[in-house]
């Protein structure tokens, strides 16, 4: 995955997800970390997209943060962190979605769509439970 094909906001969301993962003592950066950072960023399109889809961003984020609290912690937050397989798959799917839409860069909305389509991942399940779909 080449991160130079990401918009500034998408790159910032990924960095925030990694920082959040590390500060919480999680060894892997997972889609739920990325979803949290996408919702938290007021400069991202994601909060307004959620609002337009009748999903209150604050309530969705509260659900996300509840799931984050339940993730296992490692002894030291100073250790290395890794992208989970699920997040790697989501990033690949976001790139494919951008390509499909003939967008030059992967943006926050592509990341959200990729997370939405991960039906077996907790972040995807959380969005589906809120009635959100790709359509």
Sketch the topology as an H/E string, one letter per element.
Answer: HEHHHEHHH
The number of distinct β-strands equals: 2
* Residue runs with pLDDT of under 50 for 5 or more positions: none
Give the N-terminus to C-terminus distance in angstroms.
Answer: 26 Å
Which descriptor suits the 3D outline? Answer: globular
Structural class computed from helices and strand pairing: mainly alpha
Helices and strands, with pairings:
Blueprint: H1 8-23, E1 28-29, H2 31-40, H3 46-52, H4 57-69, E2 82-83, H5 85-100, H6 108-116, H7 122-129
Parallel strand pairs: 1-2
Helix pairs in contact: 1-2, 2-4, 2-6, 4-7, 5-6
Structural commentary:
The protein is mainly α and 135 residues long. Helix content is 59%, strand content 3%. The chain has seven helices and two strands, in the order αβαααβααα. The protein has helices at 8-23, 31-40, 46-52, 57-69, 85-100, 108-116, 122-129, and strands at 28-29, 82-83. Strands 1-2 form a two-stranded parallel sheet. α4 (57-69) packs antiparallel against α7 (122-129). The longest helix has 16 residues, at 8-23. The radius of gyration is 14 Å and the shape is globular. It starts with 7 loop residues before the first helix and ends in a 6-residue tail after the last helix. The mean pLDDT is 89.
Concise description?
The protein is an all-alpha fold. It has helices at residues 8-23, 31-40, 46-52, 57-69, 85-100, 108-116, 122-129; strands spanning 28-29, 82-83.
Key traits:
135 residues, mainly alpha, two-stranded parallel sheet, 7 helices
């Amino acid at each position: 995955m080449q991160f130079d094909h990401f918009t500034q906001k998408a790159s910032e969301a990924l960095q925030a997800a990694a920082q959040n993962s590390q500060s919480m003592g999680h060894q892997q950066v997972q889609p739920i970390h990325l979803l949290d950072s996408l919702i938290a960023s007021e400069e991202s399109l994601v909060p307004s997209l959620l609002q337009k889809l009748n999903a209150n961003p604050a309530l969705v984020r509260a659900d996300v943060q509840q799931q984050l609290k339940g993730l296992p912690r490692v002894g030291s937050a100073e250790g290395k962190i890794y992208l989970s397989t699920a997040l790697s798959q989501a990033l690949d799917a976001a790139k494919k979605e951008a390509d499909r839409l003939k967008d030059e860069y992967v943006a926050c909305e592509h990341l959200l769509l990729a997370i939405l389509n991960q039906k077996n991942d907790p972040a995807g399940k959380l969005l589906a439970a809120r009635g959100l779909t790709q359509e």
